[in-house]
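User: Can you predict the 3D structure for this chain?
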Amino acid sequence: MEAVPSDDDISVNRGILLECLSAVLLKHLAAAGGGKQRIRKRRRKPRAGTAGKSLENSEEAPNPSDSSYDLSEFNEYLASEIFEALPDEVQTLSFAATRRDGTVATKYSEPLALDTLDDLIAYIPGGSLETVRLYTAMEPRAVLGPVFNSYVAAATEKPLEQNTTKKATECELCMRDWVPLTYHHLIPKQVAAKAIKRGWCEDWETRNVAWLCRACHNFVHGIASNEELARDWQSVDSLSEREDTKKWVQWVGKVRWKGR
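Assistant: Here is the predicted structure, written as structure tokens:
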């Protein structure tokens, strides 16, 4: 069962790239004492398959040397230019994508191979590369290498539900942080093979867990059979959207089994 990346997933990755780029640019800004170059926006043709996604062309790009200018606006502009130019498999990169396709996992593992890094830089419009060069006084590869490595690491990070050794700090349903936690297999082990055979999940998803307090753990197993959990309620989000879960969480959140 292959999931199609949603607009929300792409939006998250857009934000990740913005954070990674901002961190690198701010580092250079601090070292240089501020940018003084006049940066102009270059026109470019959108790559195939991205019609309607590119930014509106304007006469001039945001100028970080303008004291009245919000630096975050410049970072957002440049990050958008770079992100929109990247291929779809990079825009939708995720832990799930690396589990579904071993080629993706190998290609986008940290640190990135030099040829992979060069391929990514080749997608970026020349005007954006010139902006990076003028702003940092460095070659784009030296600047964007850390950006793309940070982006890949963050986008493909193992989610909490795949990690049984890294505990959550609170129950993922009732949000109480003062009670002991257990992990709940979102695809119950007793029906994991059946879930894969029926196409309800992929093999790697059978290792997904949710960190729940004992009360919520018991509640989840009381509202649905193992087969129903595997087929219909295999994420914390889907469980949380149930009306009976909402009522339960509202009630149990008031119960203090143990003092803080």
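The longest helix spans residues 7-32. The chain has 13 helices and two strands.
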